[in-house]
């Protein structure tokens, strides 16, 4: 149903600045929407990027663009070495990155994501064991390198 609505969403004005992701994979209100856990769970099931790299969830025929704290995905580490996204999708890690603030990112076939803060103990074990070898990066360079927009609202204001 949502994919059908997405196909016909061209005439409906998109919304920006209403929700934001957090490093703990929650959609946070900014300031009035996404307050309910059910709304947050529903919105992450409809999580997609636009062709311009603006991440959104589909609300019927309307796109709600989301302000990203650091990256489009938040990854939970699984004991078997796989990753699970904040939307429930499984992925394999292709590379890891560590920014100047000490935030750890995992690159997957789905894209770049921040490692969930509650999984840093397991991530540290994986780094120490050699499973992961994070490369240094600058957070400001990641959106361009990986093709996503941190702030659709700020970008829309510039356009």
Explained architecture:
This protein is α+β, with helices and mostly antiparallel strands. The chain has helices at residues 2-7, 37-45, 120-128, 142-146, 152-158; strands at residues 15-21, 27-29, 47-49, 55-59, 62-67, 73-77, 83-85, 90-91, 93-98, 104-108, 111-115, 135-136. The protein is globular and about 45 Å long.
Give the topology:
Elements lengths: L1 H6 L7 E7 L5 E3 L7 H9 L1 E3 L5 E5 L2 E6 L5 E5 L5 E3 L4 E2 L1 E6 L5 E5 L2 E5 L4 H9 L6 E2 L5 H5 L5 H7 L1
Identify the notable features of this structure and list them briefly.
2 domains; five-stranded mixed sheet; 12 strands; disordered N terminus; 159 residues; alpha+beta; seven-stranded mixed sheet; 33% strand
Largest sheet features: 7 strands, mixed
Main-sheet strand order equals 8-7-6-11-10-9-12
CA radius of gyration is 16 Å
Strand content: 25-35%
Assembly form of the protein: single chain
Tell me the total number of β-strands. Answer: 12
Span from first to last CA?
31 Å
**Alpha plus pi helix count:** 5
Task: Give the SSE order as H and E letters.
Answer: HEEHEEEEEEEEEHEHH
The general outline is globular
Structural class: alpha+beta
Low-confidence spans: pLDDT under 50, at least 5 residues?
1-6, 28-39
The whole-number mean of residue pLDDT values reads 81
Structural domain tally: 2
Q: Residue share in helices?
A: 10-25%
């Amino acid at each position: 149903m949502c994919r059908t609505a997405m196909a016909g969403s061209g005439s409906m004005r998109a919304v920006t600045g209403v929700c934001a992701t957090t490093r703990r994979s929650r959609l946070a209100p900014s300031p009035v929407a996404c307050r309910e856990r059910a709304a947050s769970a529903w919105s992450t099931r409809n999580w997609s990027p636009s062709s311009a790299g603006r991440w959104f969830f589909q609300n019927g025929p309307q796109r709600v663009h989301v302000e990203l704290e650091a990256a489009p995905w938040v990854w939970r580490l699984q004991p078997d070495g796989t990753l699970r996204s904040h939307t429930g999708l499984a992925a394999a890690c292709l590379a890891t990155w560590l920014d100047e603030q000490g935030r750890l990112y995992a690159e997957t076939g789905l894209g770049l994501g921040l490692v969930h803060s509650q999984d840093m103990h397991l991530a540290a074990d994986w780094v120490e064991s050699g499973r992961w070898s994070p490369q240094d990066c600058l957070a400001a360079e990641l959106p361009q390198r990986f093709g996503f927009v941190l702030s659709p609202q700020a970008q829309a204001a510039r356009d």
